[in-house]
Amino acid sequence: xxxxxxxxxxxxxxxxxxxxxxxxxxxxxxxxxxxxxxxxxxxxxxxxxxxxxxxxxxxxxxxxxxxxxxxxxxxxxxxxxxxxxxxxxxxxxxxxxxxxxxxxxxxxxxxxxxxxxxxxxxxxxxxxxxxxxxxxxxxxxxxxxxxxxxxxxxxxxxxxxxxxxxxxxxxxxxxxxxxxxxxxxxxxxxxxxxxxxxxxxxx
Length: 203
Description:
- The protein has about 200 residues and is an alpha+beta fold.
- The chain is about 20% helix and about 30% strand.
- It has one domain.
- The radius of gyration is 17 Å and the shape is globular.
- Strand 1 and strand 2 form a beta hairpin.
């Protein structure tokens, strides 16, 4: 999956944490922006900080369904997203902060049937894209295989986990405030990482 189809991205599950940058206690071992990202994503999975420039996002499974409506000239069209990712390795300096976007989406498969113009989605999707020429290293899995697994622990082979690369990925949050805090912290972390990389090259 070297390229992202217009209507298909990979995603992470919903986050329901409403923490903001102001309410998160300081952890001297983690840069503040990354601390905000970890806290606002807690309900969806885990973010491992490898160093001040690199994180690994480990979402809970199974992946979340998201439907994004667009109303134009009185007509509603839909884009559908599902994101079967076991992990995403993100080098912050390789993220394009100008392409970090937020969209309200619907998590119900019945959204296209029940939607009325003006309805607001129950989740917020934050889309993250890399700078030109860079891709994110990921571990993907087969949603159908995962859905048919019984209870109990399972090996990654049983649900088809495999390495892959992608140019962009989506993160969805149940709480728009959590999504906003995450997006702001991510943008700030990316800007800081790029500034530090530039300083290292030209001290």
